[in-house]
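Narrative of activities, Objective 1.

The group set out to show that a structural description can be obtained from nothing but a protein's sequence at a throughput compatible with the screening campaign. Below is one input-output pair from the validation batch, recorded exactly as produced.
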Amino acid sequence: MVGNEKNVRAIAQRPETRAIIGTVIVVDDDAGIRASLDSLFRSADLCVVTFADPSEFLAAGLPDGECCLVLDVRLKTADGLAFQASLAQGGINIPIILMTGHGDIPMTVKGMRAGAIDFLTKPFSDEAILSAVHDALKISRSLRKEVRQRADMQARYEQLSVREREVMALVASGLMNKQVAARLEISLITVKIYRANAMKKMHASSLADLVRQAEELGIRDESVSRYHTEDDTRQR
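Output recorded for this entry:
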């Protein structure tokens, strides 16, 4: 599975893999596999941590920065697919590459449907695992970016006044300015001011962008039926 260091570095320097950064977490109860993968990933200038059991991984926690999990499906102390499911249920969102020594198609399908990004049958080539890890770390980078963007969006929302939040929720629910004014018992011009303030504070480039952010944050007045007619759209 692990070639010589020169070949590994050649693979790592290819355009499609040379941008790999992050930590690879290996969970496999085979000490030989752990040592082999540790050597391979370090030869490709990746950080690596290895564990023999899922409980050891959970106790250690996730490393900082981009990371992915290379997980053996058939562990002596745990079911790899069940562990994969428990991570998702626990809100631990990490790209997972599954490994197995058995070409089990139903197991492969189940693992991929549960969110694994790849499923490799042992023995696999250095190129195959490095390519899978590269894809996993790219996904991890995107996931972390989404988390940061969501946190920034939430922080901006918390800077809104109570009235600005009310207007944002009603607009996101589909009401026109005059309908928002009637519901809140304020003037139309005041609604427009609050809406403009909300858009500025939320860094919304348009009304559609403000509505998108409201939906991502789960902000909507559930008592309001949404309107989708062209007349409503023109009057906003």
